Amino acid sequence: MNSKSMQSHHIHYASLGSPWSAKADKIQSATGIMLGCFLLAHLHFESSILLGKEAFYHVVQFLEGGLFTSSGHGMPIVTKVFSIFIMLVVIVHAAVALRRFPAQLGQWRALRRHMQGIKHKDSHAWFWQLVTGFILFFLAPVHIFTMITNPEIGPHLSAERVYHANAWLLYALLLPAVVIHAMIGLYRVALKWGLTANRRGLRKVAKILIIYLISIGVLSLVSYLIIGRELTLPITPFVP
Ligand code: HEM
C-alpha cells in the first residue's frame, strides 16, 4: 500500500469512529455538563447583587468558606483554587471539542451547503454552538485568569473591576456567547443521552433559559456599573 492510500485508509477509519472517539465524546459531555451546571449556579450567585450589596456580600462570604473561619469572613484563596480547577475543566473540554471543528475551507462550505439545504433546526443549533465555542476560546480564559490572579470579590471590589477596570466590555461579549453555548450544549447532551425525546419541548426550555439568563446577567452588569460610577478611587471594600 503506498503512502497516499494508507493516508486515505487512515482517514476513512478515523471517520468511522474509534474507542478513543467514543471516550472523547463522553469526556466532552461530562465536562460540558459540569460547566453548564456551573454557569447556571454562577449567574444566579452573581446576580444576587440585584437584591442589594448586602445580599451579594453574604453570598460571596458563604462561597469563600466563611462558615469555617472564626471571623466569618470568606477567603479569596478558595476562589483562586476553584478558578484553577474550572480553568482545567475548560481546557479539557476545549481540547476534546477541537476535533469537531471543520478544519478546512471545503468542510466549511459543505457545512453551509448542508445547512442551507435541509434547514433542520438542530443543524443550526450545532452551527451556533460552534461559533460561540470559537468566541469562548478567546474570552473565557481572560475572565478565569483574572479570577485566579485577582480573586477579590465583593459589591465594591466587583463594581470596581466592572466599571473602573472596564471588565463590562468583556462581560458584554462573554455573557451572550457562554449562555447560548451552554444552553445549546445541555439541550444536545440531554437528547444524545436519551434524557427525553421531546425535542420541541426541550428546545422551548433552552430558549426560555437563554432569554432568562441573559436578562439577569445584563441587569446585574448594569447594577455593577451604577455602583461603580458612584465609587471614588481608591475604593474601600463594602462591609455591612
Ligand atoms: C471559578 C471561576 C469563576 C469565578 C470565581 C467567577 C466569578 C465572577 C464574578 C465575581 C463576576 C462578577 C463581576 C466581577 O467581579 O468581575 C463574574 C462575572 C461573569 N462571569 Fe464569572 N467566574 C468564574 C468563571 C466563569 C466562567 C467559566 C464563565 C463562562 C465562561 C463565566 C462567565 C461570567 C460572565 C458572563 C460574567 C458577567 C455576568 C453578567 O453579565 O452579569 N465565569 N464572574
From TrEMBL:
InterPro entries, per the entry: Fum_red_B_TM, SQR/QFR_C/D, SuccDH_FuR_B_TM-su
Source superkingdom: Bacteria
Cofactor: heme
Keywords: Heme, Iron, Membrane, Metal-binding, Transmembrane, Transmembrane helix
Heme is among the record's keywords: yes
Cellular location(s): Membrane
Transmembrane segments: 77-98, 125-148, 168-187, 208-227
UniProt cross-references to Pfam families, sorted A to Z: Sdh_cyt
Nucleus is among the record's keywords: no
Role played: Membrane-anchoring subunit of succinate dehydrogenase (SDH).
Protein name: Fumarate reductase
Gene name of the record: frdC_1
